[in-house]
Specification:
Keywords: ATP-binding, Cell membrane, Membrane, Nucleotide-binding, Transport
Protein name: Amino acid ABC transporter ATP-binding protein
Helix content: 25-40%
Bound molecules: adenosine-5'-diphosphate, magnesium ion
Membrane topology: Peripheral membrane protein
Number of strands: 12
Number of helices: 9
Order of helices and strands: EEEHEEEEHEHHHEHEHEEHH
Subcellular location: Cell membrane
Largest sheet: 6 strands, mixed
Structural class: alpha/beta
GO molecular function, one term: ATP binding
């Protein structure tokens, strides 16, 4: 479902991704961890077309994303293909980025009606289903400012799901939350994984990564230092850099 090969990305003279390769099968969950600045967010942004890669190849559901090398040439997608493909990828950020002037329901209804041309009635019905799915059926009319961080993040997940993505990307979705609110968000993500969603999750929640992850990737300095079975990578890492990082977050 996600096929990234030897992905390179630089910002000016700074090479942020130095050849990342990762395959995620349909229905699998890959957990990415690593120190701040290691390129985790940039990698997710490349998958979602928010950044263009300089070399390598990324495919999502068999479709080429962004730049790709073709016989040494860089291949650029048309804007409309980018827009179409981005719709297949849902993204949830550390900061929930809900529209503050809209209720929870309106936040969820916005993209399907504006971008996909769904009728309001249809989008509202689906939004209610999604609110129920994230455990917030009673918050349809609430504004973000009246919701806790954990509730806002669950609305943000529902909003992403409203576009029926094939893949969900989570960038440290619980890092900005008070500790007591983390569990509810992880529960929603766990249910989503169990329902068969393909996911890449940047997280330092080692318990979640071990339990839900099919693959764990430890990144450092733009390199995937170690990747494989979470039980191996997170419990018995082979690389010294992975061991010292885990010792800090555990
Ligand atoms: P992580 O998510 O692992 O903390 P990031 O992908 O955010 O790492 O950042 C990796 C590196 O790329 C950092 O050194 C960061 O400063 C740099 N960086 C990220 N985005 C940009 C940008 N738009 N312009 C310049 N440098 C950037
Ligand atoms: Mg980041």
């Amino acid at each position: 479902m996600i096929d990234a090969r030897d992905v390179h990305k630089r910002f000016g003279s700074l090479e942020v991704l130095k050849g990342i390769t990762l395959q995620v099968e349909r229905g699998q969950v890959a957990c990415l961890l690593g120190p701040s600045g290691s390129g985790k967010s940039t990698f997710l942004r490349c998958i979602n077309h928010l950044e263009k890669i300089d070399a390598g190849l990324i495919r999502v559901a068999g479709r080429t994303v962004g730049y790709a090398e073709r016989g040494g040439k860089l291949y650029e997608l048309k804007e409309k293909d980018v827009a179409r493909q981005r719709r297949g990828v849902g993204m949830v950020f550390q900061r929930f980025n809900l529209f503050p002037h809209m209720t929870a329901l309106e936040n969820i209804v916005e993209a399907p009606t504006q971008v996909r041309g769904q009728s309001r009635a249809q989008a509202r019905e689906r939004a209610h289903e999604l609110l129920d799915r994230v455990g917030l059926a009673d918050k349809a009319g609430a504004y973000p400012s009246a919701l806790s961080g954990g509730q806002q993040q669950r609305i943000a997940i529902a909003r992403a799901l409203a576009m029926d993505p094939e893949v969900m990307l989570f960038d440290e979705p619980t890092s900005a939350l008070d500790p007591e609110l983390v569990g509810d968000v992880l529960d929603v993500m766990r249910d989503l994984a169990a329902s068969g969603m393909t996911m890449i999750v940047v997280t330092h929640e080692i318990g979640f990564a071990r339990e839900v992850g099919d693959v764990a990737v430890f990144m450092d300095g733009g390199v995937a230092v170690e990747q494989g079975d979470p039980a191996q990578v997170l419990i018995d890492p082979q690389e010294a850099r992975t061991r010292s990082f885990l010792a800090k977050v555990l």
